[in-house]
Predict the structure.
Amino acid sequence: MNTANTPEEGVTKFLLHWTPAAAPDQREITTLQDWRDVFFARQLIGADPQRYGGIGFGNVSCRSTQGFLVSATQTGGLPTLSAHNFCTVTGWDILRNEILARGPQPPSSEALSHAACYAARSDIHW
């Protein structure tokens, strides 16, 4: 298979407006961290040299008063995450393919997919 024209896995495919900022408050992410640990233990999040060229896969998010919290880019291979491995997505525009975020690291490359879920249904919280 010719991969010259195949989009690279694990890279951001939206316009990102990211502002470096402090980590989310620990109280906001505790439950999200706990669930992320469960998913990592079950190998639903991780990094595998045989998958996606070794790039990390899987991420988690939850709604917040500012938008939603999401694991940062390329954190899939880390066994546990600290508050510094999360950021806050404060806005998005699905039609313009844009994300606004702030935090110590940029959001996951799947952040716009999470945004689409939150935009589609107000009863989705995780």
About this structure: The two ends are 37 Å apart (CA to CA). The mean pLDDT is 89. The domain at 15-46+54-120 is CATH 3.40.225.10 (L-fuculose-1-phosphate Aldolase).
